[in-house]
Amino acid sequence: MRIIFVPQFPSRMRYQEWWYYELPYQFNQAGFDVHILGKEYISKEVNTFSHPDMFSPIDQAIELEAEQVKEYVNMKLYDDDILFWADTSFPGIFGHVLFHKRPKKMFGFCHATSLNHYDYFEQFRPYKYPIEHSLGGMMDAVFVGSKYHKAKLGWHNAKVIYLPPPPMYEFFYNNVNKTKDIISVARLSIQKVDEELESKVENNFNLKICRPISSDWNTYFYNLASSKILLITSREDTFGYQIADAILNGCIPIARNDFAYPELLPREYLYDDEDELMKRIQYYLAYDNYKSVPKLLCEEGMQNFYSNLIEEMTKTK
């Protein structure tokens, strides 16, 4: 059985990088013949773009999709082929091909959506969301990372499957001195950081929140491991991967009691308002057992991500 894997451009230091490598690997391990659309182009171009704070480079992303279209239209499809779209949140130009040529089974993962407030593509919502919706509607199932995300989309074929644990195990640190009190690893945008609230935290505790720009995964995980608290002040999120990153590296995450965060964290790591946030920070700054970090509430779903994904895709209709 063959899986036709449709990746995004795998920009370094964004999760689409390891998503590109890890998903085909796991599919291969499960016995599938995996065909990665655009693999030759990616192997040639991926190392030319390494800025950690940006999405896929526009020109190269379009060039990749053009290569994927060319490759796909020349493919012979078989009855048992499965097409897996790595991110229906960025439908691009390839999706239009599927209206004309499609295998019998198609699945996609929707990591986010232009329905999100303050999203990078919010200004294009009137145009982008109908494309997302129509592409998602062609799929047998669209997998999402949280119940919150499924409710926001409201799609009949959305299935909650959470997300897999990050695979970069060689970069996890367990015995690192806590040299930083509070860290924020979110990109500086109105969606991901409430700068006014974080400024109040700094003034209240007379400290500076560490805001590193990591140039590689090793540095990123080390920064988390050497911090007591990961502060999340996002105004919108659909999962919260940084929470998993922090917990795996012995850092206490504190996040809003909103979005998908209650699906990840026990209540004592969540805050409803500014007063509760200050109390949480005061308590965990004085915490002395950073080996005892919270267990992810959806840990079982994350650990079983690949087996659950494959089970759903191989079900007979």
Instruction: Give the strand order of the largest sheet, numbering strands 1, 2, ... along the chain.
Output: 2-1-3-4-5-6
Text of the CATH class of the largest domain? Alpha Beta
What distance separates the N and C termini? 16 Å
Query: Whole-number average pLDDT?
Result: 90
Coarse shape: elongated
List how many beta strands DSSP finds. 10
CATH topology label of the largest domain: Rossmann fold
CATH architecture title of the largest domain? 3-Layer(aba) Sandwich
Order of helices and strands: EHEHHEEHEHEEHHEHEHEHHH
Short description:
The protein has helices spanning 15-29, 39-45, 58-73, 125-137, 147-153, 195-205, 217-225, 241-248, 261-264, 274-285, 299-303, 305-314, and strands spanning 2-6, 33-36, 82-85, 105-109, 141-144, 158-160, 180-183, 227-231, 252-256, 270-271. It is of the alpha/beta class.
Structural notes for this entry:
With 317 residues, this protein is an alpha/beta fold. It has two domains: 2-162 and 300-314, Glycogen Phosphorylase B (Rossmann fold), CATH 3.40.50.2000; 169-285, 3-Layer(aba) Sandwich (Rossmann fold), CATH 3.40.50.2000. It is built from twelve helices and ten strands. The protein has helices spanning 15-29, 39-45, 58-73, 125-137, 147-153, 195-205, 217-225, 241-248, 261-264, 274-285, 299-303, 305-314; strands at residues 2-6, 33-36, 82-85, 105-109, 141-144, 158-160, 180-183, 227-231, 252-256, 270-271. The strands form two sheets. Strands 2-1-3-4-5-6 form a six-stranded parallel β-sheet. It has a four-stranded parallel β-sheet with strand order 7-8-9-10, sandwiched between helices. Strand 1 (2-6), helix 1 (15-29) and strand 2 form a beta-alpha-beta unit. The model has no long low-confidence stretch (mean pLDDT 90).
